[in-house]
Amino acid sequence: MFGINGGELIVILVVAVIVIGPTRLPGYAEQLARLTKQARHFLADARQRVDEELGDEVKDIDWASLDPRRYDPRRIVRDALLDPEPTPAGARTAAAAATAGTAAHATRAAPATTPLPPGAPAPFDDEAT
């Protein structure tokens, strides 16, 4: 709470009691209690309004998983490398069309798969963007 530990809080309360005095302290305590109740009511009302306006989709979100303190880039990379990627439906149909051997695909040259010798310049593709 604001970086204040228990000992510091006690010192602040003792100084407040001495400065305010025993005669005005009950009045200030009542004001603090009333302010706390109003703040709780305001927060509850704001939370209810946000839930009503955003709908049921927001209630299903796991907010703890979105906490930036739980962000671990090593875990994210490890999970991305270990999980197999699902094959999209469009990739499957493109692969099936490529294996069908249409005339348009047959005239195209296959890309070179042999490695270049050391020190050789990379091939230039004038059609690349």
Automatic annotation (TrEMBL):
Region (Disordered): 81-129
Principal subcellular localisation of the protein: membrane
Gene3D superfamilies noted in UniProt: 1.20.5.3310
GO cellular component, one term: membrane
An individual GO BP term: protein transport
Superkingdom to which the source organism belongs: Bacteria
Keywords in alphabetical order: Membrane, Protein transport, Translocation, Transmembrane, Transmembrane helix, Transport
Topology term for the membrane: Single-pass membrane protein
Biased composition (Low complexity): 88-113
InterPro entries documented for this protein: TatA/B/E
Cellular location(s): Membrane
Protein name: Sec-independent protein translocase TatB
Source species of the chain: Cellulomonas hominis
Lineage: Bacteria, Bacillati, Actinomycetota, Actinomycetes, Micrococcales
